[in-house]
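Model: Ready when you are.
Researcher: Fold this.
Model:
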Amino acid sequence: MGLSAWGPFACFRAAVTGWLLGGIASFAVRQVPWVTRWRRDLLGSRRIASFREQLNGRTRFLHVLLLQAALPSEIPGYVLGIARYPFHRYVAALALTELPYALGTIYLGQSFLARRSVLLLALGLVAIVFSATFYRLFRHGLGDRRGDAHG
């Protein structure tokens, strides 16, 4: 296990770096020509237009932050890339959500290695509650936004 070999700081750095690069790659994949054709065939032009309408440069940063926190990183990356959301705002949301998850992952790993099952279970439950809460907040905020014709 990496924690035993490299320690928590190196593992934290590796996790954050990998997750950020993965998120950036999922955002950038819209640039690949064969992905564009596949995406259009799979999602359809109307759904892509809907993504672009709902998640654009005017979309509140908080909504993107909640979306990023509630779902696995690749999904918001693909959707926001398709929607042509501003890259610098996407990376900021990605970083703000990945840092706490990476920290939690390191603590979970350390708890597992130290056989502190209560802490391990508590941290896992906190992560689940946060994800579910962020998802509900996102869905609620998006519902409000859909009803607002002026965004």
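Researcher: Now this one.
Model:
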Amino acid sequence: MGKKSRKAAAREGSAGPAVADGINAMLGELWVKIAEGDVFAAEQKASGLLALPLLASGSAGLDKLLARALIAAAEKQPYGPEGAAFLRLLMALGPRDVKREASAALAAFTADGVYPPEWVTSIAKPEPRQAYRGRDVYGDRETVVMSFAYGDTEHTIVVVIDLAELPTVISVVLSKDADGVLKVLEEGEFVTALQPVTQAEARHRVETPLATAGQDPDSVLGELSVLALPLARSRVRRLPAPMPGTTVAYTAADRASAVAEFLRSPRAAEAGEEQVARFWAQVLTGYSGRVTDEPPARVGQSTLTAMLLHVARTFTLSAEQAGGLRAAVTAWVRWAADRQGIRPAAVDALMLHLAETLDGFQENYDDPYCEESRRYLLQYAAPDADAAWLADCRNRREFGAPMPEDRDPADAKADGCEEAGRSVLVATEFANCAPRGQETITLLTGVARVVEELWRDDPPSTWEAAKKLLTDGHDRHEVLHLLAERGGAGGVTLRSE
């Protein structure tokens, strides 16, 4: 099962017309709520407008287009307090480009003596109330509930996070029925129990997943969740920041201790030959402890699927390790479930799921994508390596030398693990990005240098700079341009293609 086959269906179509159509469809409702002075309803409508780039293409790269389109729409409305209120909503909830455009437009309003109504001072400033946290029976999914209020009118934000891989938002719900939301969650099958938590704890749990929500093409949010993202992010900023030192980071020593505990347990007798059992215990324990605040040896159905896919993509197995897979993994999962205190019926379901997952393991292991992925990580993939670090190594190398399915089809057979193959990839991608002659040579030389620095992680600052540029909104191609230029590759002008 290759990477592409695991992806959710990609959003199709031209992003520009989709954004324009969405703006035209939603602005009318927003103007009504602004006229009524309904703060929460106006925020909801504005949040939907601001989320349109993600809804249209799964990318935040349309923020500049969105900013221009929204400001143009505001200028078509009557030039008065309601237009100024619209701009205040954009400034409170929008991304950087939208905030900048809206601020400049509002300055023009106020220069002409046009001010928003008084109620805009409460935009994005509700009073935080209660916070709750609950998980499913395995701990694969976490639900965080936060309530806020404008005066006596309360509303609730529910964020559901998948913990099987990196913490990933899978649902965001806005509701004015706070009591009803809590009742539905407590009676549902996906949350074992909701427990009160501090507002700071709630922020700690959801802030980072919300910040990255909608950016992963492998995890596509539903439409209503996407529309709620800008408002949810704004609400979380109203909560107090976690106190320093409250995050629990489990270390290599913690993972090693869990492995030793398993090997001393009665379950180890069912795991086969000791060295093979140790290998599988290290690999599985390492993956289970990869997330901050998550102790090693947590297991659940979704986590188990992700865990074994991680193995197929990361570790080149010996004949002994492959032969001992079923016995060792079954023993470790039973031990982890017992240690976790999972109720018997859920353990039975987990073991059925394990049997199905093991039946499909070899197919995943033999998939060309997984084979190539293992080659990319060959020098790093020690069984006791930190799984989060391995993931970062994978991302770094794939960023510099994309996997075959993410390249120009003509370069599918180029060997990304060899410098000559990486040079081919650079030439195909960047040959037409500068005028012919010396500027092209300079650009290709600079990008090739950056790609080699990324592949070798030498210096590490290259990858750190790349991640910072990605966070700032640049796409991969732009990042490689910028890094090549900043490294003395010449005065090549970054331009859209």
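Researcher: Key takeaway?
Model: The radius of gyration is 25 Å.
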